[in-house]
Design goal:
- This protein has 12 helices and 15 strands.
- By secondary structure, it is of the alpha/beta class.
- It has 2 domains: 256 residues, Dihydropteroate synthase-like (TIM Barrel), CATH 3.20.20; 98 residues, 2-Layer Sandwich (Sulfite Reductase Hemoprotein, domain 1).
- The strands form 3 sheets. Strands 8-7-6-5-4-3-10-9 form an 8-stranded parallel beta sheet.
- Helix 6 runs parallel beside helix 7, helix 7 runs parallel beside helix 8 and helix 8 packs parallel to helix 9.
- The longest helix has 18 residues.
């Protein structure tokens, strides 16, 4: 039995000496928000997260140039279980393999490079890397980056595409005889996270699950969104490791870990939240300020957006504030208004239509104009 309800009979996998699944206590993890090339800052944050109680700490790498930094971070972080996020460049897996305990790949990003090679061949190569370096893996499927092939197979049903993409990749790993993997199915909508994980767990009860509400946003709302999903799933024994994804400045990044442990403790003790009106008005989603963020003003901007839009709290609209080029373009498409942040400018979108690039100082005024226009249109309708 886990500390958060009756555990499913998932298989146990080893991640750098930490057990996930198989009835082990639920592992809380987090991700560094610092730039990976900034070795001192990243090492400091690795230890900050580990000391707060993170059983696994994840780092993102974009390219091979960052591998020497990862090597040094590993050397200065003995005893910390490290995972690496391969992002859109799965080909660096063999370069990072010697310095981590786990690799995460996104099935929706495998098609970006080596387009002539099949997805099955790419996964087979990743498994060969994992075996060579004694690594666990996570198949991480995200709502904003579902593989195009599955979106075509399930037109108009993104949730089915999300689930079936994960199931398909489990099948590929099964065929290769590789069992040291977990799966995550993430969305910014807590209800969809619950539904996706329940449906996946019914199809693959053997596979350990990593729970997360992606782009949960700023606390306290981000914590509430996460709790709404985690409480329902953990109470049913669904979930073997969790990550609370909050938009936070670097110095407060460890609050993700503390929030995760608090949720586990509350579920264990039968303490659940009741927020019947939550989510019925303005919904601000923002990503968790990871190492891919190209301007640290992103966190400040997310806070400013929240403050600016308080007058619209009762209107059922979604505003997305994203911090990088990886998640920004796709994961703002479904929002009524989307902002994704580059090094010097912010891209403002209306659904999937780009309205223009604005400086960090200019974008708030244009956002207010567009928000007022949407409210007026809906009120007239």
């Amino acid at each position: 039995m886990s500390q958060a309800g009756m555990a499913r009979s998932t298989r146990a996998i080893d991640v750098g000496g930490t057990q996930i699944g198989g009835g082990a206590p639920v592992v809380v993890q987090s991700m560094c928000a610092t730039r990976t090339m900034d070795i001192d800052d990243t090492v400091r944050q690795v230890h900050q997260l580990a000391q707060a109680g993170a059983g696994i700490v994840r780092i993102a790498l974009d390219n091979e140039k960052e591998v020497p930094a990862l090597k040094e971070i590993r050397a200065q972080s003995p005893g910390v279980v490290l995972s690496v996020d391969l992002q859109e460049n799965y080909r660096i897996a063999d370069k990072v393999g010697p310095y981590v305990d786990k690799i995460r790949y996104n099935p929706g990003h495998l098609h970006h490079i080596e387009k002539a090679k099949s997805i099955a061949d790419k996964v087979s190569w990743l498994v060969s890397v994992a075996r060579e370096h004694n690594l666990a893996m996570r198949v991480g499927v995200n709502c904003g980056s579902v593989a195009p092939d599955f979106l075509r197979r399930y037109p108009g049903d993104q949730l089915a595409a999300l689930i079936e993409s994960a199931v398909y990749h489990c099948g590929l790993l099964d065929d290769l005889g590789f069992t040291r993997f977990v799966v995550s199915l993430k969305d910014s909508d807590p209800a969809k996270v619950v539904e996706a994980n329940r449906r996946f767990a019914s199809q693959r009860p053997d596979v350990p699950l990593h729970l997360g509400v992606t782009e949960a946003g700023l606390p306290p709302d981000g914590i509430i969104k996460t709790r709404l999903a985690f409480e329902k799933l953990l109470a049913q024994g669904i979930g073997d490791t969790i990550r609370v994804s909050l938009t936070l400045p670097h110095a407060r990044k460890h609050e993700e870990v503390l929030a995760g442990h608090q949720i586990l403790a509350d579920v264990t003790n039968g303490h659940f939240i009741s927020v019947p009106d939550f989510g019925k008005g303005l919904n601000i989603i923002s990503c968790p300020s990871c190492s891919r963020v190209e301007n640290e003003k992103f966190v400040e901007l997310a806070e400013q957006v929240k403050e600016l839009t308080t007058y619209a709290a009762q209107h059922r609209l979604t505003i997305a504030v994203m911090g990088c080029r990886v998640n920004g373009p796709g994961e703002t498409d479904d929002a009524d208004l989307g902002l994704w942040c580059g090094p010097t400018t912010v891209n403002l979108k209306l659904k999937n239509r780009k309205l223009g690039n604005f400086s960090y100082d200019e974008v708030l005024a244009r956002l207010r104009t567009e928000l007022d226009r949407l409210i007026a249109e809906r009120s007239a309708a």
